């Protein structure tokens, strides 16, 4: 037969049976028995848990390591330390400063350790008071638009949302920032104030380092006064002992199998051969260079349009994001170091942390060859800091070289002047120092320990994923300049990129490691919202993506708002990048207005800020009357500052406000994400 839904049903014969069978009785007894034992067993466990502490048995060794690693208090207590230096670092400088402070602690009988707040349970700060004469120091960088660094984000949020009692915690804070940015050292200032609000004791006033001036000088000056405050607070004296103690020991790895040796990978061995999604700062994607073409029409400068192939990577980006590129040092400079130090660059070695409790076992991926370390892991082109001068003294056989290094390593006015002129003004890197002080012959493994890590370079993405979902575009100026010593210094990343030219034949295409960094530099959610874009030079990059996205929306039949672009360069016939594209967008109506400033095409220099000031009525109409969005991209030191001043002036005059009201209006625009800046110094 079939039921009403057409489903076939088997016919069965039904016979009468007793209401309760023997099987039912047996099942009932089993259920009652299980319930009885479960109830009384649970009660017994509950009682016993009140008599002895509850413990969780780790299921694996990694669980044990994770638990112990997160407790910096346990490490301090078990190793007899009283000083912990936390760092919030995006480029490695704050981490380097933290290491220098921890190392110097030995001179004041304060054994120190460096800690990454991301790897620690920061709630343990409440237990610092249990350690006699303890001190927590925070070296904290401010990043982006007044944001904490990635590794300090959780700590920052814990301070914001928590109300821990930090009475008994002694602390000091040093901030790393850049005065050309609006939110100068904002995170360090907040942490310093918040710790005090939670009951902690400030041992020394906050230090604010300015990377736009001389952050090394700022740090050294603050550090000297810090130790004076520490001595006064704890009633201790400097021991006078030098702290030139190696943090890492050399391990010979000549017998290590080739497949166990790093060859430039950022974190995971053989990660470039066996790529795994997701891709991030520790696991970049090895992208092929699909396009590399020159944008400048003439002149002796170069600007490259480069397209990274991300097809099949599962990577996704949004218009306005950044792409990070992992560079490689010049082989010429690397070979020069080997030659100057008479070293075998192909020897395989490892540097192992002498502090067994440290979570950072190696300064960079080990084991590897010296050539690999110098090529991929170490910064050999930046200006070395004063602590490197100090460490090089013992390797100088010529008394004159020794005295010069001692002077530059000192904090005297004469020493600071010499360091500023000889290192910073003359733009010497470690190769230049070894060339100009020929008696200085450091052990190569020690030099590898001292040099900072080579950092990835960030570029504004100059494409829209709506139009180019399988590629990422960047716009990069080739960096080359001659120093006062007649040396040519070259940008690490751009000079590498300039060499990566795709071929049209069957040869393997050039590749480079990349990953995507999210940004807050975003188009308005509604396509009809009017926008103004100010982007001279390569500041045009993200706006090329913005325009592409709005053009895509227009072609789909959606309404798009006004798009006004201010672009500037030196000469129209030399460095007007993407000229044909921009003119086409003007012709089809996507780009409403295109204001151009060619600074050297007439006797008097003309910049985008001059044009912005001339168009005060239009500027106020869009940002004031139509609640449009305004974007600035480019040089933070002058252009972005000048643009900000003009915007405040226009708001004040056209909006009939006082200076204070205009400043508040612009500040509110920033808070509402209607005024965004993607700038660099």
Strand content: 15-25%
Please identify the oligomeric state.
Answer: single chain
The assigned CATH architecture of the largest domain is 3-Layer(aba) Sandwich
CATH topology of the largest domain: Rossmann fold
CATH class of the largest domain: Alpha Beta
What average pLDDT do the residues reach?
Answer: 90
Output the number of helix runs: 22
Largest sheet: 7 strands, mixed
What is the strand and helix layout of this fold?
Layout: H1 22-51, H2 61-70, H3 72-78, E1 83-88, H4 93-104, E2 112-115, E3 135-143, E4 147-148, H5 153-161, E5 170-177, H6 186-197, E6 201-202, E7 207-210, H7 215-234, E8 248-252, E9 285-294, E10 303-309, E11 322-325, H8 331-340, E12 348-353, E13 368-369, H9 370-377, H10 386-392, H11 399-409, H12 413-425, H13 430-436, H14 444-450, E14 457-460, E15 471-477, E16 480-482, E17 488-490, H15 492-499, E18 511-517, E19 531-534, H16 541-555, E20 563-569, H17 572-575, H18 579-588, E21 593-598, H19 608-614, H20 616-625, E22 629-635, H21 639-654, H22 659-671, E23 675-680
